[in-house]
Amino acid sequence: RVDMVTLGESMILFQSYNQGALQYEPLFTKSLAGAESNVAIGLSRLGKKTRWVGRLGSDPFGDLVLTTLSGQGVDVSHAVRDHEAPTAVYFKDFKRYGDPAVYYYRKGSAASRLSPEMVDEAWLEGAGHLHVTGITPALGDHTAAATRKLMEMARKKGLTVSFDPNLRRKLWSEETARETLLSLIPLCDIFMPGDEEAEFLLGKLEIEAYGEAFLNMGPKLVAMKLGAEGSIGFTEKASVRAEPFAVDRLIDTVGAGDAFASGLLSVLLDHREKIADGLGEAALHEALRRANLLGSMATQFKGDWEGLPTLAEVHGILDGEKS
Ligand code: KDG
């Protein structure tokens, strides 16, 4: 049994060793990145069985993606190797104040060649939940169509589906991004935008109005990330706010949203059958708190996922709070 399956592009990430300006840094560390595989790793550390599906080049970087993910307990048996296109790479630049800048080298990558005909029902075999992001549809019309097909397939097979818009402005035009992301919302049960993404999609509204508007599009649960304000969850029955966790040393914000998704799903997947009828307030609050905790932990370590906790660590922190 697989708790969650996800589809996306995973890349090799190069980060400057000294966290200096990219152009002058002589040393780089090499790791794995990719929003969806970040979520798979996060959930796996929290004790869930996860599967990552994606296309990789037949190159050493593709090998590294597979060995890293399987080392983190993620099932990669459905990953596909492309013999003509490479695994993508990307660089993080820590020079700027605030969020690191990212530079992608991913045009024409193996993952960007995903098309609807390649989508395979076997990817969902034995799985209860599918998680997708707005990054895969940003790679091209054919990857958008493939994402849509997999979401529809999952729903038909009775899986629950979560969708994080992960808006990456560098990858596509504003109009295509808005139109495509909005068109995928009705295909998910759990929608998890950030406040800036909500504004991008619907214009400036009160936070509560975003919740109502997204619920009206079809999802049963909307979990909104509010940055330093924590998060808020909406269902037909309730709206619940969860306080943020302090960030003592802000190092790297990239991956925080994926950490949030892992924390949230780690609780929601234990209540999967209740999502359709509206999850209770206590479970929703627990999911949001854990999501906030993971989001804050991710920002305090270099790398997208290296700072993510195990379930024992989460219990240690959250139980410590109560005593
Ligand atoms: O959410 C983190 C991702 O942005 C990062 O891992 C790289 O998947 C990535 C992307 O496309 O930006």
Explain this structure to me?
The protein has 323 residues and is α/β, with parallel strands linked by helices. The protein has a single domain (4-9, 35-84, 113-322), classed as Ribokinase (UDP-N-acetylmuramoyl-L-alanine:D-glutamate ligase, 3-Layer(aba) Sandwich). 34% of the residues lie in helices and 20% in strands. The protein is built from nine helices and 15 strands. The protein has helices at 35-45, 60-71, 141-156, 174-184, 195-202, 207-216, 256-268, 281-298, 311-322; strands at residues 4-7, 11-16, 28-33, 50-53, 55-57, 74-75, 80-82, 89-93, 101-105, 129-133, 160-164, 190-191, 221-225, 231-234, 239-242. Strand 14 and strand 15 form a beta hairpin. The two termini are 35 Å apart. Bound molecules: 2-keto-3-deoxygluconate (KDG). Residues 33-35, 38, 135, 166, 168, 254-255, 257-258, 304 line the site of 2-keto-3-deoxygluconate.
What portion of residues is helical? 25-40%
Query: Total number of helical segments?
Result: 9
The CATH C-level name is: Alpha Beta
Strand proportion, as a percent range, falls in 15-25%
> What is the H-and-E element order?
EEEHEEHEEEEEHEHEHHEEEHHH
**What is the domain tally?**
1
For the sheet with most strands, the description reads: 9 strands, mixed
The structural class is alpha/beta
Strand order of the largest sheet: 6-4-1-10-11-12-13-14-15
Query: Terminal Cα separation, in Å?
Result: 35 Å
Given as residue ranges, the uncertain stretches (5+ residues, pLDDT < 50) are none
CATH topology: UDP-N-acetylmuramoyl-L-alanine:D-glutamate ligase
